[in-house]
Amino acid sequence: MAPKSADALRVPVASLQRRAPDVAQPVIVDVRGLGKTFKKGVRAVDGVHLQVRKGEIFAFLGPNGAGKSTTIKMLCTLLRPTDGKASIAGFDIETSPREVRRRIGLVFQERTLDDQLTAEQNLRFHAVLYGVPKREVEERITRVLAVVGLTNRRSDRVSKYSGGMARRLEIARALLHTPDILFLDEPTVGLDPQTRARMWADVRRLRDEQGVTVFMTTHYMDEAEYADRIAIIDHGRIVALDTPARLKAQVGLDKVLLSTADDAKAAAALAKKGMTAEATAKGLVLKVPDGEAAVARIVGAAGTGVRNVSVHKPSLDDVFMHFTGHEIRPEGAQDGAMARAWMASTRGR
Amino acid sequence: MTQFGNEVRTALMVWRRELIRFTRSPARVITGFVQPILLLFVLGYGLGKLVPGYQQFIFPGAVAMNVITTAIFSGVSIVWDREFGFLREMLVAPVSRSSILAGKVLGGAVVATLQGCLILVLAPVVGVSLGFVAILQFLGGALLMAVSLTAFGVFVASRMKKIDGFQAVMQFLLFPMIFLSGSQFPLQDVPLWLAALNRLDPLTYAVDPLRRILLDPANLAPDLATLSQRSQVQFFGETIPMWSEFVAMALFAALFFGLAVLSFRKAEQ
């Protein structure tokens, strides 16, 4: 396969069809005031409230140590909460853990496959653990392997798999017992960008074609973009919970950055048309509700030689900063430009 | 499918996995071979010059040792399962932990018994003749012993958070237990402290019945018969019956299996 750039493989975020929570769908994850205090007195999760409906892709976004994994572990019955309540598909996580486990598919941060076994053997093992009826096992294995595109690697030992393939196999395995909801705890940690993109495409397809509900945690901003709704968690508390678009809308307007031959002259020309431009070191900045739509109008009004124009939408980084007062983590941050329109000036030569 | 049926299927699947992994690692089989071969052909031949019949005498000890080390190793291998994540896949499943551990113990025990059989094949080479009944008895005895030691290994592993502890377990637990078990020499007419340690060592009751089965004094050369007779475990001058040793092994197995289940229930998430 010819190497492709990561960007070429990425599903363009702007074109994703997100779904607002469909109130007609039943609530699958119902969390009420869930909290966890560890023995040493550390309050890892502090009164989390949230509801996830069937068919949603729900992302839990926060820095390492914010309480994401602790929450997901409690929901998966791997850890007992110290306060609050939660139910999965109608079953209480504390009183009926086995019923909950039967109905969830889990993909952990760390690899949980047996490398010595083949993909098929790993899946068969899982089918037995989850009580998949014998006569259905064969057909289901074939189906889940097809879903993640590993059909022709079925009889390979997992030790021969790449990190990305192993992760996809884990997703296939988590689907084998037809769970109501898939929990993915930082599923893309340690994967390269291409593999991450591939995994997200798979997850979205699962939701679109099979109606699987997905609850996932991540500390990558760009991944949270794939979700229908995002909960931002910091220091064990949910500080914001909404669709990516609405969260961004809360943060503020789009910024249009304009660079011209003579900024002062352009600013004056814009002011005449009733547009306020702020002069910065990088050029003129205009705050408008819909950046892309305003570009033509702004360029027309500026009059003098426009060198380039770029539109900056509020990013999730901005959202995160807005709600928590700090950045998620320096190296994971994007450059803040969601859509960029470079325009060569025709007159400014 | 009933819940009970699921539990049984789970145990069988875990059991099968142990066997698959056994066939996938020929290196393990060969490594397991080295020690008994040294015992049998180096120690056995060397000491055999001084003690007539010693090479035959040590044969059951060599077989037992192969079963013992493999069994404990199989049990402790659950630490690897934890390290490589697969334990988590098993423990989060909607099945009881005792089914998983039962499969692990039975699988490990069958692997260990198979390892023992590999040495048993050498019987004619060292001049030990085995009847059909003796072989059947051996299989039963070895399996019981392997079950209890795998359970012991699983229990030890449940208390071990890191692979690093493995060497320590071998040095501080397994080697003394093997030396004190009387697998290489009779430990009956010895000072009280040594006799006491020997009687406290659970391996004593695993090795002794195997030797009684494989070296039946009734059809041995006089020297060897005496040696074999003298190695039988005695309490207050009386040789204890073989069935009591089997009972001891079974209790040992039940005890450590129970402790392992409790330990996994409490500690693992």
Key descriptive features of the protein:
heterodimer; A: about 350 residues; alpha/beta; Rossmann fold; Alpha-Beta Plaits; 2 domains; six-stranded mixed β-sheet; four-stranded antiparallel β-sheet; 12 helices; elongated; disordered N terminus; B: about 270 residues; mainly alpha; two-stranded antiparallel ribbon; globular
Secondary structure topology:
The complex is a heterodimer of chains A (349) and B (269).
Chain A: H1 6-9, E1 27-37, E2 43-53, E3 57-61, H2 68-75, E4 83-88, E5 91-92, H3 97-103, E6 104-107, H4 119-129, H5 134-147, H6 163-175, E7 181-185, H7 193-210, E8 213-218, H8 221-224, E9 229-234, E10 237-242, H9 244-251, E11 254-260, H10 263-272, E12 278-280, E13 283-288, H11 291-302, E14 306-312, H12 316-324
Parallel strand pairs in A: 3-8, 3-9, 6-7, 7-8
Antiparallel strand pairs in A: 1-2, 1-4, 4-5, 9-10, 11-13, 11-14, 12-13
Chain B: H1 3-24, H2 26-48, H3 54-76, H4 78-83, H5 86-91, H6 97-120, H7 123-126, H8 132-158, H9 165-180, H10 192-200, H11 204-214, H12 222-230, E1 234-235, E2 238-239, H13 242-267
Antiparallel strand pairs in B: 1-2
Describe the structure.
- The complex is a heterodimer of chains A (349) and B (269).
- Chain A is an alpha/beta fold.
- Chain A has helices at 6-9, 68-75, 97-103, 119-129, 134-147, 163-175, 193-210, 221-224, 244-251, 263-272, 291-302, 316-324, and strands at residues 27-37, 43-53, 57-61, 83-88, 91-92, 104-107, 181-185, 213-218, 229-234, 237-242, 254-260, 278-280, 283-288, 306-312.
- Chain A folds into 2 domains: 26-242, 3-Layer(aba) Sandwich (Rossmann fold), CATH 3.40.50.300; 250-332, Alpha-Beta Plaits, CATH 3.30.70.
- Helices cover 34% and strands 24% of the residues of chain A.
- In chain A, helix 5 crosses helix 6 and helix 9 (244-251) crosses helix 12.
- Chain A is elongated.
- Chain A starts with 5 loop residues before the first helix and ends in a 25-residue tail after the last helix.
- The model of chain A is unreliable at 1-15 and 330-349 (pLDDT under 50).
- The longest helix of chain B has 27 residues, at 132-158.
- The mean pLDDT of chain B is 87.
